[in-house]
Amino acid sequence: MRVLGVDPGLTRCGVGVVEGAPGRPLRMLGVGVVRTPAEDEVPRRLLAIEDGLERWLDEHRPDLVAIERVFAQHNVSTVMGTAQASAVAMLCATRRGLPVVLHTPSEVKAAVTGSGRADKAQVTTMVTRLLRLAEPPKPADAADALALAICHIWRGSADGRIAAALANRTTPTTKASKEYRP
Amino acid sequence: MRVLGVDPGLTRCGVGVVEGAPGRPLRMLGVGVVRTPAEDEVPRRLLAIEDGLERWLDEHRPDLVAIERVFAQHNVSTVMGTAQASAVAMLCATRRGLPVVLHTPSEVKAAVTGSGRADKAQVTTMVTRLLRLAEPPKPADAADALALAICHIWRGSADGRIAAALANRTTPTTKASKEYRP
């Protein structure tokens, strides 16, 4: 399964593509940031984000897009831009018929570090380790996008395995789940 | 000048098309609401809003899109959806190369009623009167979309006139401005 993770933002929209499957090592296919200039007007910035994400989707052809769920309680000054950037990401994916899954920041942190309250540095460390990267991905938005994709591969695969197990009671699920949980 | 006004919302996105020019009566070309089912997931709802707005843009070919500016201080439970719907509207317009203008709710109320603190009923009454409609437009989101378009025709035209006056100092601007201000 190939997942595009998106950490939405108007100034920096983190993107990361990870391929993975139950019991097999994760592989990073790409990571980056779609940036838009703060001096541009919001409609133009949203269009630039759309263009940027379309290019990532064209190049990597993911099976699914995982986006960070935005909460209204976040920093009020940035939440509107974050909500708008996430809308663009949802639209780009859905228009192509790709499933979209939203994960909360604490789900993502728990998936890659084991703790829903891990800090940014811890997430970056674990992303670097899990993907066997020579250097930590920068900026934090790019690392977060990879963490989102990893989170989905692990969570989504578990759900898929449960569904498969229910459909075919002979599938061994317990061993596989231990192999690739962090 | 033909303006599409959009009152963004996930459940009801008000749309209204108004044509107008300095010193001439306003004319409503269309009004409606793009609705999306609350039980659908957000990505699907955003796609439905995009489809709906594209149809309005195709049919009415406005010169400009006026959208209500969303504030984070609004009702927290609906502000995220409103921000996301407004992002879709901005994207649809900008993708076509149409200018997007954002007006605050109080600018819109002040434009059509003379008071920035007018209530919804007052806005609907004035929209009905200014467009010489047989019946008030319903729901309130549709009336608000028309009010946004009217607000822009009046404000935008004034700005345009000022720019024209600066470019050509012989243009008489004062009289015209009195003719069509509410």
Automatic annotation (TrEMBL), chains A, B:
Q: What is this protein called?
A: Crossover junction endodeoxyribonuclease RuvC
Species per Swiss-Prot/TrEMBL record = Kitasatospora acidiphila
UniProt-listed HAMAP family = RuvC (MF_00034)
Q: What's in the keyword line of the UniProt record?
A: Cytoplasm, DNA damage, DNA recombination, DNA repair, DNA-binding, Endonuclease, Hydrolase, Magnesium, Metal-binding, Nuclease
What family is this?
Answer: Belongs to the RuvC family.
Q: Subcellular localization, per the record?
A: Cytoplasm
Under the heading SUPFAM superfamilies, the entry gives: Ribonuclease H-like
Task of the protein = The RuvA-RuvB-RuvC complex processes Holliday junction (HJ) DNA during genetic recombination and DNA repair. Endonuclease that resolves HJ intermediates. Cleaves cruciform DNA by making single-stranded nicks across the HJ at symmetrical positions within the homologous arms, yielding a 5'-phosphate and a 3'-hydroxyl group; requires a central core of homology in the junction. The consensus cleavage sequence is 5'-(A/T)TT(C/G)-3'. Cleavage occurs on the 3'-side of the TT dinucleotide at the point of strand exchange.
Catalytic activity of the protein: Endonucleolytic cleavage at a junction such as a reciprocal single-stranded crossover between two homologous DNA duplexes (Holliday junction)
Cofactor binding remark: Binds 2 Mg(2+) ion per subunit.
